[in-house]
Write a structure and sequence with these properties.
The protein is built from 3 helices and 5 strands, in the order αβββαββα. By secondary structure, it is an alpha+beta fold. The protein is elongated, with a radius of gyration of 25 Å. It has helices at residues 3-47, 102-110, 145-173, and strands at 49-63, 69-80, 83-90, 117-123, 126-131. The longest helix is centred in the first third of the chain and has 45 residues, at 3-47. A hairpin with a 2-residue loop joins strand 2 and strand 3 (83-90).
């Protein structure tokens, strides 16, 4: 066999390697996003118990030098399992991370008034884990669509490449 005959297979194999890499990256992203963003908020809706919280204090937490990041933070007083707790809740569900969206965090902060009562959700296994703002809705799963489509397309192209390689090799053997 000369090298010209091998170039189509080499090209297909290189494409196959690229397709596998894209497939793996899409799977990693899908898993990361689901386990970091969707599942914790789904768990709140399904497993946490409802309580009534009093907003004792609230503040817009700000950190950073060049890039400022923000989080709406609430000090809550509530009763769980017949015991009174005081815990801090984020305006981002279970996520206590900070974001560059100051206006969005301020809007969340403005929805709650000090001294007022609001429904909240606590973890029955760890009542100090409290959530004031649930973030689980259908839009949180929307970012999963693109990597899912990429995964389906890559699986199709991987099988197509494999069948092309098999067909090319079997036609050379004849």
């Amino acid at each position: 066999m000369n090298s010209l005959n091998d170039s189509p297979i080499k090209s297909i194999i290189l494409n196959l390697v690229g397709q596998v890499i894209i497939l793996l990256l899409a799977i990693v992203y899908l898993n990361f996003y689901y386990f970091e963003r969707v599942l914790p908020n789904k768990r709140i809706a399904e497993d946490f118990h409802v309580a009534t919280c009093v907003v004792t204090n609230k503040e817009l937490v700000e950190k950073g030098g060049i890039i400022h990041r923000f989080r709406a933070s609430f000090l809550l007083t509530y009763t769980a399992n017949d015991q009174v707790y005081r815990s801090v809740a984020s305006g981002n569900g279970m996520n206590h991370g900070l974001t560059t969206n100051k206006n969005g965090q301020q809007d969340i902060l403005d929805q709650f008034n000090i001294g007022m009562t609001y429904p909240c959700w606590f973890n029955p296994e760890n009542p100090r884990q409290i959530v004031l703002v649930q973030k689980h809705d259908w839009s949180s799963t929307l970012p999963l669509m693109i990597p899912s489509i990429i995964i389906i397309a890559m699986i199709y192209y991987i099988f197509s490449s494999i069948f092309t390689i098999i067909g090319t090799i079997s036609s050379r053997k004849k």
